[in-house]
Predict the structure of Sugar phosphate phosphatase.
Amino acid sequence: MAADQAAQVPPSLSAKVVGSFAYLTVKDRMPTILTKVIDTLHRNKDKFLEEYGKEGIEAEKQTIALLSKLRNEMQTDKPVVPLTDGLPDAEIWNRYLQRHRQVEEDQEAVSWFKSPWLYVECYMYRRIQEALWLNPPISDYDVFNEGKTLSFLESQQAVMALCTYLEEVKKKTEELSKKELFLHFKKLLQVSLWGNKCDLSISAGKDNSQKTDAIDSLSSLQPFILVDDSDLMWSTLTSAETQGPPRRLDIVLDNASFELITDLVLADFLVYAGIVREVRFHGKSFPWFVSDVTANDFHWTIKQTMATNHRWISKCGVRWQSYLKEGVWSYHDHPFWTLPHEFCEMAAAAPDLYAALQGSDLVVFKGDLNYRKLTGDRYWDHAVSFGTSLRGFSPAPLCALRTLKANIQVGLQPGRGERLSSVEPDWMSSSKYAVIQFHSSTTPWQQD
């Protein structure tokens, strides 16, 4: 039976397919990101000199040399090589590489264009971390911080509008019926969904900030949500109100800047409305995929909102800081989130994290990379159910909120993916479309 199931699992997306989104990413977008990283380090050499003296300049030169070598390896499709920095996760990465070599039975086959796209893209960001770590004193420098900061600052009008909306809703929360609460939840959930468009790894670091009122845009974006399971999410969060305390929500974050603000606003609404008692945010332990949230990004964002002179933004920031102080909110950055594994491997590769997620009432996975890891980033038929693509990963009821930026999408009505492909060949990678997909292994009324 296990062999039959394994035989049904499709192959991984790969840059082997010339012209595919994976191919164009490895050929063009990833080298562009590396070039921007090199440029960022070079532009900051005076800062390194000022802070660390000649040692800082030498570290900058050596880091750039390693990154230039990495870019050349990628562009010439060289074999993937083991990590050498001795960090705690290096052995895990190297074992993962060895496993791929054994599967391929050919060391040369584990290369940038021949191997799974998910693996080599994650590996690139881990190699960036290695280049920095091998060159103190700039080991902790965030090469993506400038872009994340600029994106946040350029989204201030949208942040202002969203925080103002939240405060207006909160003034009347006690008067709202359950149906009205659900409608506000649905709006803020969709804001969080479309906030995922602000992804600097997809734009290769170019400006991708939110400049308009996200609430005002929702009605025009509604037709582009291909799957909307927000009612199932709401039922999961509210079904036991009469049987026990409010629920625990876990949010596996994606991008910093405006998207993070949308996640914080959604979490604030659910706590303030008494629907959720605790929110655990999960981010990355080091800079990842250009704009992914790190601990520094998370706490810096809240401090920025507290310090602003806009009344409602600062009020939100003060409340968010109090949530953290009181333990209502917490931030976690398990090393597993920066490993190349599909999530169906989590129970074996990171049993402590899997056990922690089992204590959640709902786990929300934000963004494209999380979706790729949920589904294994494979050539699934579009009509295959979301639950099937998870391949047994079900620590708790879970939901994926994602704007489509890669060639993977499951859980559609039969024929819909093909119809979209005939009209818009790039529908899976343009970020025009989005999904809110729910799965629970214990929910008999779910269509999965």
Confidence is low (pLDDT under 50) at residues 1-7, 444-448. The domain at 169-439 is CATH 3.40.50.10880 (Rossmann fold).
